[in-house]
Amino acid sequence: MAVLHNKFISLHLLFLISIGYGGVFISAELQRFQHPAKDDGSLSFLVLGDWGRRGAFNQSQVAFQMGKIGEKLDIDFVVSTGDNFYDNGLTSEHDTAFEESFTKIYTAKSLQKQWYSVLGNHDYRGDAEAQLSPLLRKIDSRWLCLRSFVVNAELAEIFFVDTTPFVGMYFSETEDHTYDWRGINSQKAYVSNLLKEVELAVRESSAKWKIVVGHHAIRSVGHHGDTQELIDQLLPILQANNVDFYMNGHDHCLEHIGDSNSPIQFLTSGAGSKAWRGDIKGLNKKGLNFFYDGQGFMSVNLTPTDAEIAFYDVFGNVLHRLNTSKQLHSFI
Ligand SMILES: [Zn+2]
Protein backbone atom coordinates (compact mmCIF):
# COMPACT_ATOMS: atom_id res chain seq x y z
CA MET A 1 0.00 0.00 0.00
CA ALA A 2 3.03 2.29 0.35
CA VAL A 3 3.06 2.55 -3.43
CA LEU A 4 -0.38 4.08 -3.35
CA HIS A 5 0.75 6.81 -1.01
CA ASN A 6 3.60 7.72 -3.32
CA LYS A 7 1.27 7.99 -6.31
CA PHE A 8 -1.16 10.03 -4.41
CA ILE A 9 -0.03 13.49 -3.54
CA SER A 10 -2.34 15.88 -1.82
CA LEU A 11 -1.90 19.54 -2.53
CA HIS A 12 -2.71 21.89 0.28
CA LEU A 13 -5.95 23.78 0.44
CA LEU A 14 -5.61 27.30 -0.84
CA PHE A 15 -7.84 30.00 0.51
CA LEU A 16 -8.69 32.97 -1.60
CA ILE A 17 -10.13 35.94 0.16
CA SER A 18 -11.87 38.46 -2.00
CA ILE A 19 -13.50 41.73 -1.14
CA GLY A 20 -16.64 42.43 -3.13
CA TYR A 21 -19.33 45.13 -3.03
CA GLY A 22 -21.41 43.02 -0.68
CA GLY A 23 -18.58 42.69 1.82
CA VAL A 24 -15.96 40.04 2.44
CA PHE A 25 -16.58 36.52 1.22
CA ILE A 26 -14.33 33.53 1.44
CA SER A 27 -14.04 31.02 -1.36
CA ALA A 28 -11.88 27.91 -0.97
CA GLU A 29 -10.41 26.09 -3.91
CA LEU A 30 -11.35 22.42 -4.05
CA GLN A 31 -8.74 20.07 -2.63
CA ARG A 32 -6.75 18.39 -5.40
CA PHE A 33 -5.12 14.99 -5.75
CA GLN A 34 -2.78 13.82 -8.48
CA HIS A 35 -3.23 10.38 -9.97
CA PRO A 36 -0.88 9.49 -12.82
CA ALA A 37 -2.22 7.93 -16.01
CA LYS A 38 -0.62 4.78 -17.44
CA ASP A 39 2.73 5.04 -19.22
CA ASP A 40 0.96 4.87 -22.61
CA GLY A 41 -1.16 7.90 -21.65
CA SER A 42 -4.39 5.97 -21.12
CA LEU A 43 -6.52 5.66 -18.00
CA SER A 44 -9.13 3.16 -16.86
CA PHE A 45 -11.32 2.91 -13.82
CA LEU A 46 -14.51 1.35 -12.50
CA VAL A 47 -17.53 3.27 -11.22
CA LEU A 48 -19.78 1.79 -8.53
CA GLY A 49 -22.55 3.22 -6.37
CA ASP A 50 -25.02 2.38 -3.61
CA TRP A 51 -23.26 -0.70 -2.29
CA GLY A 52 -22.41 -1.24 1.42
CA ARG A 53 -24.66 -4.04 2.71
CA ARG A 54 -22.14 -6.47 4.27
CA GLY A 55 -22.16 -8.47 1.04
CA ALA A 56 -25.95 -8.92 0.87
CA PHE A 57 -28.26 -8.21 -2.07
CA ASN A 58 -25.59 -9.46 -4.50
CA GLN A 59 -22.98 -6.93 -3.30
CA SER A 60 -20.41 -9.75 -3.14
CA GLN A 61 -21.33 -11.00 -6.62
CA VAL A 62 -20.94 -7.52 -8.10
CA ALA A 63 -17.60 -7.21 -6.26
CA PHE A 64 -16.42 -10.53 -7.76
CA GLN A 65 -17.19 -9.36 -11.31
CA MET A 66 -15.54 -6.01 -10.63
CA GLY A 67 -12.42 -7.91 -9.69
CA LYS A 68 -12.45 -9.80 -12.99
CA ILE A 69 -13.14 -6.77 -15.18
CA GLY A 70 -10.72 -4.68 -13.12
CA GLU A 71 -7.96 -7.17 -13.89
CA LYS A 72 -8.85 -7.33 -17.58
CA LEU A 73 -8.74 -3.55 -17.91
CA ASP A 74 -5.79 -3.09 -15.54
CA ILE A 75 -7.70 -0.35 -13.76
CA ASP A 76 -5.98 2.63 -12.17
CA PHE A 77 -8.60 3.34 -9.49
CA VAL A 78 -12.25 2.94 -8.50
CA VAL A 79 -14.84 5.71 -8.19
CA SER A 80 -17.70 5.36 -5.71
CA THR A 81 -20.75 7.51 -6.39
CA GLY A 82 -21.97 7.40 -2.76
CA ASP A 83 -24.48 5.69 -0.48
CA ASN A 84 -21.42 3.77 0.62
CA PHE A 85 -22.89 2.23 3.78
CA TYR A 86 -26.51 1.20 4.29
CA ASP A 87 -28.92 1.91 5.75
CA ASN A 88 -27.64 4.91 7.64
CA GLY A 89 -23.97 5.49 6.80
CA LEU A 90 -21.42 4.73 9.51
CA THR A 91 -22.20 5.19 13.21
CA SER A 92 -18.61 6.33 13.85
CA GLU A 93 -15.10 5.89 12.45
CA HIS A 94 -14.95 2.68 14.54
CA ASP A 95 -18.08 1.19 12.93
CA THR A 96 -17.24 -2.38 11.83
CA ALA A 97 -19.48 -1.88 8.78
CA PHE A 98 -16.49 -0.17 7.14
CA GLU A 99 -14.53 -3.41 7.04
CA GLU A 100 -17.55 -5.70 6.67
CA SER A 101 -18.98 -3.79 3.70
CA PHE A 102 -15.76 -2.53 2.09
CA THR A 103 -12.45 -4.16 3.08
CA LYS A 104 -13.78 -7.72 3.30
CA ILE A 105 -15.94 -7.45 0.15
CA TYR A 106 -13.71 -5.85 -2.51
CA THR A 107 -10.89 -8.33 -2.01
CA ALA A 108 -9.78 -8.97 -5.61
CA LYS A 109 -6.20 -8.07 -6.39
CA SER A 110 -7.24 -5.70 -9.17
CA LEU A 111 -9.39 -3.70 -6.71
CA GLN A 112 -6.46 -3.00 -4.35
CA LYS A 113 -6.20 0.47 -5.86
CA GLN A 114 -7.19 3.91 -4.68
CA TRP A 115 -10.95 4.37 -4.22
CA TYR A 116 -12.31 7.91 -4.60
CA SER A 117 -15.70 8.32 -2.92
CA VAL A 118 -18.36 10.93 -2.36
CA LEU A 119 -21.11 10.87 0.26
CA GLY A 120 -24.71 9.94 -0.58
CA ASN A 121 -27.90 10.86 1.23
CA HIS A 122 -27.81 7.59 3.23
CA ASP A 123 -24.26 8.43 4.35
CA TYR A 124 -25.55 11.75 5.70
CA ARG A 125 -28.06 9.82 7.84
CA GLY A 126 -25.19 8.46 9.92
CA ASP A 127 -22.00 10.12 11.13
CA ALA A 128 -21.08 11.73 7.80
CA GLU A 129 -17.76 13.00 9.13
CA ALA A 130 -16.70 9.44 10.06
CA GLN A 131 -16.35 8.57 6.37
CA LEU A 132 -14.08 11.59 5.87
CA SER A 133 -11.84 10.56 8.78
CA PRO A 134 -8.15 9.80 8.11
CA LEU A 135 -8.54 6.92 10.60
CA LEU A 136 -10.41 4.93 7.92
CA ARG A 137 -7.40 5.32 5.65
CA LYS A 138 -5.29 3.71 8.37
CA ILE A 139 -7.68 0.74 8.49
CA ASP A 140 -7.78 0.45 4.68
CA SER A 141 -5.45 2.73 2.72
CA ARG A 142 -7.57 2.42 -0.44
CA TRP A 143 -10.25 4.63 1.09
CA LEU A 144 -10.55 8.32 0.29
CA CYS A 145 -13.87 10.06 0.81
CA LEU A 146 -14.26 13.82 0.95
CA ARG A 147 -17.24 16.08 0.45
CA SER A 148 -15.95 17.72 -2.78
CA PHE A 149 -12.53 17.45 -4.42
CA VAL A 150 -10.67 17.10 -7.71
CA VAL A 151 -8.58 14.22 -9.04
CA ASN A 152 -6.13 15.27 -11.72
CA ALA A 153 -5.38 12.13 -13.73
CA GLU A 154 -3.45 13.88 -16.53
CA LEU A 155 -5.67 13.29 -19.60
CA ALA A 156 -8.77 13.47 -17.39
CA GLU A 157 -9.81 15.67 -14.53
CA ILE A 158 -12.52 14.33 -12.25
CA PHE A 159 -14.53 16.78 -10.17
CA PHE A 160 -16.30 15.19 -7.19
CA VAL A 161 -19.29 17.21 -5.99
CA ASP A 162 -21.19 16.79 -2.70
CA THR A 163 -24.75 16.79 -4.08
CA THR A 164 -26.79 15.84 -0.98
CA PRO A 165 -26.89 19.41 0.42
CA PHE A 166 -28.41 20.63 -2.87
CA VAL A 167 -31.61 18.67 -2.29
CA GLY A 168 -34.16 20.81 -0.43
CA MET A 169 -36.28 17.83 0.59
CA TYR A 170 -33.58 16.59 3.01
CA PHE A 171 -33.91 19.84 4.94
CA SER A 172 -37.70 20.31 4.75
CA GLU A 173 -39.32 16.84 4.59
CA THR A 174 -36.99 14.60 6.57
CA GLU A 175 -39.75 12.10 7.57
CA ASP A 176 -38.18 9.87 10.26
CA HIS A 177 -34.60 10.45 9.11
CA THR A 178 -31.95 12.54 10.82
CA TYR A 179 -29.26 14.10 8.64
CA ASP A 180 -25.80 14.99 9.89
CA TRP A 181 -25.51 18.59 8.76
CA ARG A 182 -22.43 19.37 10.87
CA GLY A 183 -20.09 21.44 8.70
CA ILE A 184 -23.01 22.82 6.70
CA ASN A 185 -24.30 25.75 8.71
CA SER A 186 -26.36 27.25 5.94
CA GLN A 187 -27.59 25.18 2.99
CA LYS A 188 -27.78 28.25 0.77
CA ALA A 189 -24.28 29.49 1.55
CA TYR A 190 -22.78 25.99 1.30
CA VAL A 191 -24.31 25.29 -2.11
CA SER A 192 -23.54 28.74 -3.46
CA ASN A 193 -19.89 28.49 -2.39
CA LEU A 194 -19.57 24.95 -3.76
CA LEU A 195 -20.99 26.02 -7.12
CA LYS A 196 -18.38 28.79 -7.30
CA GLU A 197 -15.59 26.31 -6.51
CA VAL A 198 -16.82 23.81 -9.11
CA GLU A 199 -17.23 26.51 -11.76
CA LEU A 200 -13.71 27.80 -11.16
CA ALA A 201 -12.23 24.30 -11.29
CA VAL A 202 -14.00 23.13 -14.48
CA ARG A 203 -13.41 26.46 -16.22
CA GLU A 204 -9.68 26.41 -15.54
CA SER A 205 -9.24 22.74 -16.45
CA SER A 206 -7.29 22.00 -19.61
CA ALA A 207 -7.76 18.22 -19.33
CA LYS A 208 -8.84 16.35 -22.47
CA TRP A 209 -11.71 14.80 -20.54
CA LYS A 210 -13.72 16.62 -17.91
CA ILE A 211 -15.78 14.31 -15.71
CA VAL A 212 -18.06 15.38 -12.87
CA VAL A 213 -19.13 12.85 -10.22
CA GLY A 214 -21.98 13.34 -7.74
CA HIS A 215 -24.30 11.05 -5.83
CA HIS A 216 -27.59 12.38 -7.19
CA ALA A 217 -28.56 12.09 -10.84
CA ILE A 218 -29.01 15.22 -12.88
CA ARG A 219 -31.12 13.12 -15.27
CA SER A 220 -32.62 9.73 -14.46
CA VAL A 221 -35.69 7.70 -15.38
CA GLY A 222 -35.17 5.51 -12.28
CA HIS A 223 -37.06 5.65 -8.98
CA HIS A 224 -35.92 9.12 -7.91
CA GLY A 225 -36.00 10.65 -11.38
CA ASP A 226 -34.30 13.93 -12.30
CA THR A 227 -32.87 16.12 -9.53
CA GLN A 228 -34.35 19.54 -10.24
CA GLU A 229 -31.92 21.39 -7.96
CA LEU A 230 -28.99 20.01 -10.00
CA ILE A 231 -30.69 20.74 -13.33
CA ASP A 232 -31.21 24.34 -12.21
CA GLN A 233 -27.90 25.01 -10.47
CA LEU A 234 -25.16 22.57 -11.48
CA LEU A 235 -26.01 21.60 -15.06
CA PRO A 236 -25.59 25.12 -16.56
CA ILE A 237 -22.01 25.20 -15.21
CA LEU A 238 -21.23 21.81 -16.76
CA GLN A 239 -22.80 22.80 -20.10
CA ALA A 240 -20.86 26.06 -20.25
CA ASN A 241 -17.50 24.44 -19.53
CA ASN A 242 -17.32 21.48 -21.92
CA VAL A 243 -17.85 18.74 -19.37
CA ASP A 244 -17.99 15.35 -21.12
CA PHE A 245 -19.60 13.07 -18.54
CA TYR A 246 -21.67 13.40 -15.38
CA MET A 247 -21.55 10.19 -13.32
CA ASN A 248 -23.81 9.43 -10.37
CA GLY A 249 -25.53 6.79 -8.27
CA HIS A 250 -28.65 7.21 -6.07
CA ASP A 251 -31.01 5.33 -8.38
CA HIS A 252 -30.18 1.64 -8.02
CA CYS A 253 -29.77 1.00 -11.69
CA LEU A 254 -27.48 1.49 -14.66
CA GLU A 255 -28.40 4.09 -17.26
CA HIS A 256 -27.11 6.32 -20.03
CA ILE A 257 -28.92 9.49 -21.05
CA GLY A 258 -27.75 12.13 -23.52
CA ASP A 259 -28.22 15.87 -23.00
CA SER A 260 -30.21 17.70 -25.65
CA ASN A 261 -28.33 21.00 -25.18
CA SER A 262 -24.70 19.84 -24.95
CA PRO A 263 -22.45 16.83 -25.56
CA ILE A 264 -22.73 15.83 -21.86
CA GLN A 265 -23.60 12.18 -21.27
CA PHE A 266 -25.41 11.35 -18.01
CA LEU A 267 -24.24 8.00 -16.65
CA THR A 268 -25.83 6.33 -13.62
CA SER A 269 -23.96 3.58 -11.78
CA GLY A 270 -25.89 3.01 -8.57
CA ALA A 271 -26.36 -0.75 -8.76
CA GLY A 272 -23.72 -2.01 -6.33
CA SER A 273 -26.13 -4.11 -4.26
CA LYS A 274 -29.92 -3.83 -3.77
CA ALA A 275 -31.66 -3.20 -7.10
CA TRP A 276 -34.67 -4.44 -9.08
CA ARG A 277 -36.92 -1.75 -7.70
CA GLY A 278 -39.24 -2.13 -10.67
CA ASP A 279 -40.63 1.39 -10.84
CA ILE A 280 -39.43 3.31 -13.85
CA LYS A 281 -40.35 6.98 -14.05
CA GLY A 282 -41.75 7.83 -17.43
CA LEU A 283 -41.85 11.57 -16.79
CA ASN A 284 -38.81 12.59 -18.81
CA LYS A 285 -37.38 9.98 -21.16
CA LYS A 286 -35.67 12.56 -23.35
CA GLY A 287 -32.23 11.38 -24.49
CA LEU A 288 -32.58 7.91 -22.95
CA ASN A 289 -30.13 5.45 -24.50
CA PHE A 290 -30.00 2.69 -21.92
CA PHE A 291 -31.67 1.70 -18.65
CA TYR A 292 -31.17 -1.48 -16.61
CA ASP A 293 -32.98 -1.96 -13.31
CA GLY A 294 -30.65 -4.66 -11.87
CA GLN A 295 -27.24 -4.89 -10.17
CA GLY A 296 -23.95 -4.07 -11.86
CA PHE A 297 -21.27 -1.45 -12.40
CA MET A 298 -19.55 0.61 -15.08
CA SER A 299 -16.05 0.81 -16.57
CA VAL A 300 -14.36 3.82 -18.16
CA ASN A 301 -11.42 3.58 -20.57
CA LEU A 302 -9.85 6.81 -21.76
CA THR A 303 -7.14 7.70 -24.24
CA PRO A 304 -6.42 11.34 -25.17
CA THR A 305 -8.81 10.95 -28.14
CA ASP A 306 -11.27 8.19 -27.25
CA ALA A 307 -13.56 7.20 -24.42
CA GLU A 308 -15.18 3.81 -24.04
CA ILE A 309 -17.72 3.28 -21.31
CA ALA A 310 -19.29 -0.11 -20.60
CA PHE A 311 -22.04 -1.26 -18.24
CA TYR A 312 -21.91 -4.77 -16.73
CA ASP A 313 -24.52 -6.90 -14.99
CA VAL A 314 -23.96 -9.15 -11.95
CA PHE A 315 -22.67 -11.92 -14.23
CA GLY A 316 -20.08 -9.66 -15.88
CA ASN A 317 -21.99 -9.45 -19.18
CA VAL A 318 -21.66 -6.17 -21.06
CA LEU A 319 -25.14 -4.67 -21.34
CA HIS A 320 -24.35 -1.40 -23.07
CA ARG A 321 -21.36 0.43 -24.51
CA LEU A 322 -20.78 4.10 -25.24
CA ASN A 323 -17.90 5.11 -27.51
CA THR A 324 -17.04 8.72 -28.11
CA SER A 325 -14.14 10.43 -29.81
CA LYS A 326 -12.56 13.83 -29.22
CA GLN A 327 -11.13 14.14 -32.72
CA LEU A 328 -14.63 14.64 -34.08
CA HIS A 329 -15.05 17.80 -32.04
CA SER A 330 -11.68 19.29 -32.99
CA PHE A 331 -12.53 19.10 -36.70
CA ILE A 332 -15.90 20.80 -36.41
ZN1 LIG B 1 -28.99 7.92 -2.53
From TrEMBL:
Record: residues binding Fe cation 1: 50, 83, 86, 252
Entry-linked Pfam families: Metallophos
Signal peptide span: none
Protein EC: 3.1.3.2
GO molecular function, one term: acid phosphatase activity
Keyword Plastid among UniProt keywords: no
Broad EC category: hydrolase
Keywords annotated in UniProt: Hydrolase, Iron, Metal-binding, Signal
Any Gene Ontology CC annotation: extracellular region
Cofactor: how and how many bound: Binds 2 iron ions per subunit.
Residues reported to bind Fe cation 2: 83, 121, 215, 250
Metal-binding found in the keyword field: yes
Family: Belongs to the metallophosphoesterase superfamily. Purple acid phosphatase family.
Name under which the protein is recorded: Purple acid phosphatase
Organism from which the protein derives: Ziziphus jujuba
